[in-house]
Structure formats: C-alpha cells, structure tokens
Amino acid sequence: MKVLVVGSGGREHSLCWAIAASPLCDALYCAPGNAGIAQEAECVPIDADNIDALVAFAIDNAIDFVVVGPEAPLVLGLVDRLDAVGVKSFGPSAKASILEASKGFMKDLCAKYDIPTADYRRFTKADDDKAWVRDKGAPIVVKADGLAAGKGVTVAATIDEALFAIDEAMTGGKFGDAGDSLVIEEYLQGEEASFFALCDGDTALPLISVQDHKPVFDGDKGPNTGGMGAYAPAPIMTESLATIVMDRIIMPTINGMKAEGRPYKGVLYAGLMITADGPKLIEHNVRFGDPECQVLMALLKSDILPALIAAHDGVLKSFDLRWRDETAISVVMASNGYPGSYQKGTPINNLDAADADDDVIVFHAGTSRDAQGQLIATGGRVLNVTSFGDSVLDARTKAYKAIDQIDWPEGFCRRDIGWRAIARKLGDA
User: Fold this and answer.
1) Is the CB of residue 16 less than 8 Å from the CB of residue 6?
2) What's the total number of domains in the chain?
3) Which 8-state DSSP code applies to residue 98?
C-alpha cells in the first residue's frame, strides 16, 4: 500500500514510525512532516489544512490510505473530500468532528444522552458569562467553544481570574473566532486520565489508558499547554474503571452520534476526570492525543495499519490489539517561553547520543533543517523523548538521561512527568 500521513508534529512522527514498520506499507508519505519524520517517510511540502492540495496529491500519487493526524483538516472536511474521490482514510467526517470543533456541542450531547460531565452553561455574551461565574463562584473553568490548539481552557482559581479569561476570549480576541462563544463549567476535583478508542461507527475498540500532563511547569503549575508529557498505562485506569468508561461514556457517545446523523469513525479521545463519583468527561477530541499517541505507538505490538483500515471499513468488531508488557513515558522538550511567545530557529545538537539507547525513541514535534543541514527548533513543543521501562520510574530515568545528553540551551522540559504513578507506587498518593 501507498500511505499518506497528514500532519507535522510528534503525533504524526509516532504514527509514521509505527506505520513504516507495517509489512502492508510499501511507500509512506507525510505532509508536511518534519526533520524527524523525514527518516521514516518522504515529506511532501503541503500544509495539513490545504485540503485541495492534499486531495490532489492523493489522486496523482495513487495513495491507497490517508491517516489524518491533526484536528484542523478533519474539521475542514478532508475525510469527506477523500471519500468523494474514492480514497480511503482514517478519521471522522466534518459532521462528526464537531465533537472537538465545538465544546458546546459536546456538552449538549452529554446532556442529551446522559453522559456524565461537569455542570455547564453556554454563552455568547460576556455579561451573561460573568453573571453565571459570580453566581457559581470559584474555582471554575472557562473554555473557548472552538478550536484553540489546546490553549483555550482556563482553570480559574478566583472569580477575578475567570472574569479576565472571559474578557481575553470574548473582547480581547485571544482565540479568534473560537472565543466568540464560551462554555463555563464547574471545576471537577480528582485525577485526570486519557482514554482512547478506535471506532468504526458502531464498534469501539479501547486502547490502553494514558495520563497526560497539561500544565507547563513541574507540580502541575502554570498555564495549560497542548501537553508536556505522558505515560502509559495509567495505574488509575483499572479494568473495572475502563469498563465503566466504555459503558457510560464511549459507547453512549458513539450511539448518540449515530442517532444524530453524525456516525463516528476514527479514534475517539475522552479526557476524563476520575472523581469521587466516578469518571466524568472533560472533553472529547477527534484524533490521537499529542503526546499520548507517542506512548501508545511505542507500546503497541500489533500492526497499527490494519486496525486503522478496519475503522474505515466498519469491521473493528473482529479486531483485537496486543500491547507490550512494559511502561512507556514521553517527555516534551519545548522552546523557552512556551506556551507564550518563543524564539524559532534555535539549533539542536547531540540528538544521536540521546537516541542511542534501544529503549529510547526521540520523536520530533517541531523541527526542521536549515540550509546547512543543522537541526533547528521551529515550534513551541519541539521534541518528545520517549522511553520504555519496567515501571514509570524506570522509563522516566531513561528519558531524562537521554534529555540530559541533548545540547539545546533554548529548550526546557518538566522534570516530574509520571509523578502521580510514582507517588502511588511509593504509597504517597
């Protein structure tokens, strides 16, 4: 098969890494890719949201299967356009992608189909938002309704912080059109977990659980990011809890979307808060998480490509996946200043030494090469140092040992990825 992966981040690098190992894959392309992906696939200079050019490339190069990584091309209808010209793809339609494109839609779906989630209200006027915030009190969560690259959520510790977040979104234009309407919801207390399932419109095949780290600094301090690290499996997600998540959140979502005339195919992400009352849905995403995908692909023993094809073809019911009996952790190295403004074009050296350990894989998230062939940072999140181990602590030790070999003064990382699992193991959680 000739396969095209769409995207340029660490998620797409890990997908390319996994797909390249499939005996079904004869030729692999990635649009636009990055410096690390270039080691696995032929990079094509087409932006992920250039739908016309992507469809034309698929036709001209007789692509058999397209794997769509990021949310933007899904929301823009890339899967629909590919279906129209007879090219198979992995990912939901534009109508189904509204699960991520509109947090308000997702919350309304939860209300309609009795999916446990936080109490919420939707608003299009700042004054109404502020009145509800004052009535509910803090802490409280302010979310831009639309796509905001993982940065549209403020967990406000005080009413003033929430009011400021509302002004930034609705009158300050911080998130563009995505902030024209807001979802304000109650703050949930508990432990977060990421739950993924491959879906074919009727069947959902759960993957192993992951825990992500959103805040930028150690100790879960600072603003939320797209993710500063992840590990799998997450000890909090027991077999019995996974069954509850499937029965109360994943399948009601799949059945509800089908009933709404928006059948869901692709991977469904459920961001969960494990509360004293059980798991509650924080958000749905319509693609693999980043950096969660990196640890999932690292631990997957099965060939990923047939599973992705089965999701498109509607035959997941007969599928099963095998996983390595180990722990994987991925630590994000980001440019200084992220998630705010940061310098681009800074050189990265000594990556070969970091990648030398057989238990370490360095996935590239925001890299390129300059005219002299020097590896440079081009994004906020730049590298995903991913490692295996017998435990979270073992895997983490290997990851940070690799990170310490990388020569990139303009980069930083959190030093406590996996802390909850380690604390639980030590009996301190």
Assistant:
1) no
2) 4
3) H
As beta bridge partners, residue 270 has 195, 284
Same domain (yes/no): 199, 282: yes
Q: CA-to-CA distance for 123 and 284, rounded, in angstroms?
A: 20
Which domain, by its residues, includes 281? 191-318
* 3-class DSSP state of 405: coil
For the segment 50-100, what is each residue's pLDDT rounded down to a tens digit? 999 999 999 999 999 999 999 999 999 999 999 999 999 999 999 999 999
Q: What CATH number did the domain enclosing 63 receive? A: 3.40.50.20
Tokens describing residue 348: 């990265």
- At residue 388, the 3 state secondary structure works out as strand
Q: Where are the beta strands (DSSP E) in 295-414?
A: 327-335, 360-364, 367-369, 375-377, 381-389, 411-412
Say how far apart CA 418 and CA 397 lie, in whole Å: 11
> Torsion angle, CA of 292/294/299/304, rounded to 10 degrees?
100
What six digits make up the tokens of 211? Answer: 């825990």
Q: Provide the whole-model pTM.
A: 0.93
**Residues 137 and 42 grouped into a single domain:** no
